[in-house]
Amino acid sequence: MAEIPGRKRKRFWEHKAVAEALATIPPIVAATVTAILNLRDPAKRSLGWVLIGAAVWLVLASLVKVLNARAQDAVQKRSEEYEGLLGALHVLHGAVRSRLGIQSRHDGRLRATIHRVLPANGGEQGAEEVEQLLPYIGGTGGPAGRTFSIRSGITGKAVRERSIFTASRLSSDYETFLTELVRDWSYTAADARRLTPDRRSWMAVPIAGEAGSISAVVYLDSSEPDFFGTEVERVVHRGLYRNPHVHRRGVLR
What we know:
The protein is of the alpha+beta class.
């Protein structure tokens, strides 16, 4: 398993917005002072107004640059906040691989990611979608930021029923598998075809927030059928599933 990086808090001058603001102050002050001095001289008053216009332009341009830098800082901060989740997911993924004797974490036999429930403050009753927070660990897949309806799939079922669920494909035939997804998991035909076609088994673990509503789901899948047996469930349960607000009520096979 790759080493988990530590967190480093940024000092204030390391933020892009602060750097942009500090860089734009001197030219704005210089242009403004020069404009005022020229306005006081009747012979240079026209130049003074040009400099005033230039100062206003600098202010507006600087404001846009600072706002853009703040937006970039916010994106980077969000990414850094997810480092802890990514580290925990690496640990869980490594624990399952270790128990099953899987040496490589890149062979695609086990993938894992985390989804959050949207809207975050709506609880299960107000939730409409889940958003993939992290890229897949253990194999290739869709990028973070994708959203899925909670009315379909094993992840949505885990949110709705507040339970751990595992499932396996009933058929190795791809077209039959697509029929399963539509018939048994409420996917549309188009959404079913967008899923990774070589997955044979899945597991979804709901995580409750402070208020007791489901706030996130840990999602795992495998290219092997019946991968998520009792031993894997025990490892996941011991390493992750300790929240008293969520109770296991059944396993879907």
